[in-house]
Fold ATP-dependent DNA helicase RecG.
Amino acid sequence: MKRAPRRGDTDKTRLGPAGAQPVSTLPGVGPKVAEKLAARGLETLQDLWLHLPLRYEDRTRIEAIATLRPGQPAQVLARVEAVERSFRYRPMLRVAIGDDSHGTLVLRFFHFGKAQVAQFLPGRRILCYGDVRPGQHGLEMVHPSYRLLADEADANPRDSLDPVYPAIEGLGPLSVARLVGEALKRLPEAAELELLPAGMRERLDLPTLREALLTAHRPPPDADLALFAAGRHPAQRRLALEELLAHHLSLRRQRIALRAHGAMPVRPPGKLARALRQRLAFQLTGAQQRVLDEVSKDMARPEPMLRLVQGDVGSGKTVVAALAAANAVEAGRQVALMAPTELLAEQHLGNFRAWLEPLGLRVAWLAGKVTGKARAAALGEIASGRAQVVVGTHALMQESVVFAALALAIVDEQHRFGVHQRLALRDKGLSGSQVPHQLVMTATPIPRTLAMSAYADLDVSVIDQMPPGRTPVTTVAVSGERRAEVVERIRAACAEGRQAYWVCTLIEDSEEVEAQAAQSTFEQLGAALPELRLGLLHGRMKPAEKQAVMARFKAGDLHLLVATTVIEVGVDVPNASLMLIENAERLGLAQLHQLRGRVGRGAAASSCVLMYKPPLSALARERLEVMRSSTDGFLIAEKDLELRGPGELLGTRQTGLASFRVAELVRDADLLPEVHRAAEELLATAPDLAGRVVARWVGGAARFAGA
Ligand code: ADP
Ligand code: MG
């Protein structure tokens, strides 16, 4: 699904008032049709205008049968020569047609009715369109679209290419085309529609919005279809540009609105942070120090910090967050740290308690499983300010959570939270017009081209250096046929005192199925490796069970942990130095990279075995090769983007980036510099226009602009 329905827009947010009219104002759209359209998110005329064709059919020309070439679609005007029905294996109707070029073409049908057969009388004129393929006796078309013509009737070739729209359940392709055509009749004049400054269109040599829409729906006969198929026709580029601009503007405006609030400047002498650094068993890396400086500088200002810290798995983001937290606490304020899973949140809790409690700080814990008295106690400590630091999951955003003086909201693994959730946590710290500083951490490296779009509302810091003493992970790809060998390897590694992960993955998006697979792998491996102690970890287990298993693995009490991808983020067991990932060919590179980051955390040489099911496609082979040859998260992200597209990389929930109607980030990435430039220009010179662009494309989501 490319787009989500957008509701709640007011008239002027659409492409003019006409754009906001419901589809039911079109002839032939009753409640039933309207319902089918609505199921695809098509509720207004504008939705239909932006429902672009997938491809086009050229019925503008009539070709001579004698000149047809197989492998290409064509339209011919001919006469029926012979009709044959057979039922040998399955019903089949063959109609031979011929034209003035003395060529013969066979039309073949596998589904047909009596009335249809009766139409094909030898000598009748027929206009038909379809893909030409080689057949048993010369060329043929299978299930062409056709029209029988009276002798004197004009064939009337079309004067523009025919659009073929994405299917809508319950509506035939012709009805969809007709409805879009009706909607296009109501498209307002160019001047009314246009929002982009003329200078910008000229610079890029792009048509007006009206022209772009009309061309995209009905290209002229001489249109370059290859350009259209690649999504690079100026008409498509024009639409993509405006859409990208709208999304970018929406994030920029959100940032501006956020910055308009004040924030509590945090500039303590830094005693607490110094004490914490003295307690650490290591020195900060240069990159950690630089990022910490950037964060501290932001926090010292009276506007809220909006900073994203990107750093590969294991680069040491947590301690940077802890030092920032120490500063906020020393300034007499509170800090909240939110993580997307309980497992990850618990790990942060462990670290923060170990680091901060010896300094006399109180760290509270709040997750879904904290209930009853414990919950009431935590809420009390948060509200009174007795707990200076609160670590938790989504539970932190619940209404009952009230902070005494929240000055720093830290969100880990940003890509699992949407912008909305980040704002919800921010709102916990609203006091008067002041909002807390925000620090967002992510281990998903985003290619530079996309980072500016994905995080247009944030400043970005990168920890681009690993703590010293890590030995890089060696990665190999192994066919599933060699499973027995791999099991032996695990036996040998564990005999040497190493610990290992066995990661079970499935393509189905079902925790249940995945859990079952992990369970049976756990049993098989247990039988094959009776001398080892195995643990099982999957998403269907109770948090307490998960925690117990993790604790045993961390303590070295378990040799092998059989797990689903729930271990993806945050698991930190330095002694684990071997990881096997099943069905590795099905996972995205970013996810593989995350998983692999669980090993190579200690001094021991680590390895990762990517087990695949043969045969491998060329693409899958290339992807595994990327993993084998690189451990650089940024490089892997660039490759992932190249090979799979941004939806995979960013996750659909993240920023709405994957829910464009027209634009495709990778394909249109070269427009981004212009998009950024245009956004700054519009915000500076024509903020009202900027607002209208956002409202038109982003619609409901624009309400965050006022945040
Ligand atoms: P991530 O960036 O993936 O969240 P963590 O913050 O979990 O990484 O850090 C990974 C491990 O590296 C932790 O065990 C942490 O204590 C350790 N670590 C962090 N910074 C350094 C450093 N400068 N030197 C050595 N070890 C470090
Ligand atoms: Mg982390």
Observations:
- The chain has four domains: 12-56+163-223, 61-157, 271-463, 473-630.
- The chain has 26 helices and 22 strands.
- The CA atoms of residues 500 and 578 lie 5 Å apart.
